[in-house]
Amino acid sequence: MSLLHTYVLPRLRPNLEVFAQISRPRHRIASQLNFHTSTPLLRILPEMAEDQPTGLKANKGIELLTWGTPNGWKASIILEELKAAYNKDYTWQGINISKNTQKEPWFTKLGPNGRIPVIVDHDQGGFPVQEGLAILTYLTRHYDPEHKFSFTDPLDVSRAEQWMAWQHGGLGPMQGQANHFNRLAKERIPYGMQRYTGETERLAGILDTHLATNDYLVGNKYSIADIASFGWVHALRFSGVDLDSFPNLKKWWESIVARPAVQAGLAIPSKSGFGNDAFLEKMKDDKEFAEKEHQVAEQIKAAKEQYGYKYSSP
Ligand SMILES: N[C@@H](CCC(=O)N[C@@H](CS)C(=O)NCC(=O)O)C(=O)O
Questions:
Q1: 44-54 pLDDT tens trace
Q2: Would the CB of 132 count as within 6 Å of ligand 1?
Q3: Where do the TM regions start and end (predicted)?
Q4: Topology given in CATH for the domain delimited by 154-306
């Protein structure tokens, strides 16, 4: 048993956003400790101090306030794509959602919903934008002059908006609830587990069907429509959905995850352990993790059987 399991994790608030736990690198977990700081920990103090932002730190360009989650990745990926395509640099700060930094007044003044991601455009008088769809469209409207990741044809603009709205109203909330009921809920509620895992599967099926005849969601071009859903698809295995059952979706995911800018975006604020690739690796390498994950999968399976769940997606 590591220090992480015996000492740190039990001390974390029990109802933390699950992504906050699994995506936090070891040295950041150390910042949860309030016992006497040992020498190795002292070496990382400056970084730990940065873990608790108390306000904005840039005065020009885009500043991103985020954490390593499927919603956070939407913003970091488009910013990395814009950086690769146009040399547009940006500043970021890690908002540790397990410490509720996103509920602090300086943050909610910028993002009233108290959730990440939020961007602030210092070149537009400190204009703040919350919500993934709004961030993706804001950034491309202002900083994608060649429409490398966005569209000019009004019908394609509408198509992209439709997929992004679908992600906001469907995939994100349903998969988020699947994670909650499968992993975080204080009680095991089989109805909730099978309902939300089932909905996530249904929605994965919608993407899979669309991608059977399209390489990307809109106009056969990688765009903000894809970026909006990518982060959630990247975490499907972790949510109890087998990506291998959706071959077109898997192919789409593989082509996007291979992009250097996507890899860079996934590493903001730090590399996560719950993407489909890292998840499979950890299942191979970490026996204890694999055992726990098998238990979760068995519970989901039993919940589906209990309520006669049948996969169906038009
Ligand atoms: N619809 C929002 C959702 C944002 C959201 O739910 N963010 C989560 C992280 S994935 C969060 O900040 N959770 C912390 C909290 O609920 O306080 C978007 O797409 O940006």
A1: 333 344 568 99
A2: yes
A3: none
A4: Glutathione S-transferase Yfyf (Class Pi); Chain A, domain 2 (1.20.1050)
